[in-house]
Amino acid sequence: MTLFAARRRPDTTRLLDEAGGVRAMTWVMAIMVFLTVLAAALGLGTASAGRLLDRQLAGRLTVQVVEGEAARRDAAAARVLAVLRTMPEVAQATPVDRAELTRLLRPWLGSDAADAGLPVPAMIDVDLAANEDGAAEDRAADRVVARVTAASKAARVDRHARWMSPVSGLMRSVTWLAAGVVLLMAGATAAVVVLAARAGLEAHRATIEVMHMLGSTDVQVARLFQRRIALDTGIGGIVGTVVALGVIALIGGQLAALGSELIGGVTLGPADWVLLAILPLGFVALAMAAARFAVTRALRRTL
Fold it and tell me: Transmembrane residues, as ranges (predicted)?
């Protein structure tokens, strides 16, 4: 009767338990998930900042009229402004007020920035008409440059997207680097789970042999490992995610306090926070799949 009960319900719930209560696997997973969430947050934040920067710079030009004499400068700026406002490629052309230029120059020139004799160029902000095609936008900018330089030889046109392209490229590189780190951490997690599963098999080989004699299959044994590793990964993932989200919120608050539009754009939206919060579930699924693969393969080879 006892043998029948053992065959029907073998006591295998503690197959992978270790003495001491706290398993090293849990802390390893907590660290792995912590680092992965930080990397994912970095990638999501820089991707968000890159999109914001692209939206802000798309179709933006600045026209400078560089002329030493104020009267000629103002006359040339007026001609250029009139030309811009007649072009269908231009959605808006706004002259920058001299008081605003003075305010921008004050950190470098001090009180001299307000000197009326200071040869400050006249500036005009230009917004091109909305265009989904990047090539068409470049052609429109080329036409604006040609008309502006024809209206005044003293005019210079700066394309925001061009001189900020290195920053956009850097943000894209950081985003891809963060994605690569997330993939590497996932691979490392799978490797750790495989090593832990193999160590468990070696440590409990005698118990597993008895289970096989009592009728347990390789799949049933693998499920025990899956359940134990899923529990360890889940607990560690929750701990790592909570700590990582706290660190991300702290750093996000500090970035927002800087008041920089570019750095302040490194933010996370609601969907990003949800994605980071459910990341432990992905690690649990990965760990279970890795454990099942490692255990079933090892059992087929050795037992």
Answer: 21-44, 174-197, 229-253, 273-295
> CA quadruple 252, 253, 254, 260: dihedral positive or negative?
positive
Among the candidates 153, 179, 206, a domain finishes at 153
Looking at the structure, tell me whether residues 243 and 287 fall in a common domain: yes
Digit-coded pLDDT (tens) for 47-59? 888 877 777 676 7
Tens of pLDDT, residue by residue over 169-205, are: 888 888 999 999 999 999 998 888 888 777 777 666 6
Question: Would you state the structure tokens that stand for residue 278, as one six-digit string?
Answer: 């459910």
Q: Which residues of 258-286 are buried (b: 16+ CB within 10 A; e: fewer)?
A: eeeeeeebbebeeebeebbeebbebbbeb
CB neighbours (10 Å) of residue 100? 11
Beta bridge partners of 126: 61, 93
| Count of C-beta atoms within a 10 Å radius of residue 132 | 7
**Tokens describing residue 9:** 């319900």
Give the DSSP letter of residue 57. H
Looking at residue 81, its amino acid is L
C-alpha to C-alpha distance for 91 and 34, rounded to whole angstroms: 47
